[in-house]
Amino acid sequence: MAASISLVIPAYNAEAHIASVIDRIPNPVWRRLRTLWIINDGSSDKTAAVIESLAKRHKSIHPLYFSGNRGYGATVGTGLRLCRDDGCDFAACLHADGQYPPEAIPGFVKAMASQRISLMQGSRIASGTALSGGMPCYKYIAGRLMTALENLCFGLRMTDYHSGFLVYDRACLQALPLHRMSRSFDFDLEAIASARSLGLPIGELPIPTRYADEVSYLNPIRYGFRVLWVLAKYKMGYYKESMG
Q: What is the CATH number of domain 5-241?
């Protein structure tokens, strides 16, 4: 029997792109889909109306609405807890702006199952498309420097820790302390730090880079300090202690 998949899409002011993200989900995922959780994080545009329309078209879509903006990490964490509770074998986080490829999910799940990987990161660097896909030079350079520091800290050989395209297996969903993790954009890095502390296998696969007209709500300077704080906490054993 094929492994089941659940998806979580955090959506904040995403009326322009979210429908196209749903349309790009490939048939192999729909056939194995347990639940598609779309969480409207207090959007001030027409995102809620678009989600309602999508839910009428697809019975697998389960909308959730926050009355106010809780933040990226709070939204993804809520979605992953819902994925964990719905009993899926794998869960993937897609962004509502279309920056990450739903088309890649079947390949990620297949690789994770065959290689026994619990947490798989999508890498824009490994694909060689970072700059050609529109990534600003300052982000590329800062990302490469940060990745070198992160590899030193975690003892891994990853090429990209910050794409936001992550796929989790059931063991990872059950083990991560999702309710204790960051409410901000460093949530994804905390997932990696926690998985590493638990000894769960972590890997990466290449994904294409796509920067278009989407609006970013990430403050790069604030995010950089958050990343450094995650690394400091990891070295101090914080994530091991949080598992106890």
A: 3.90.550.10
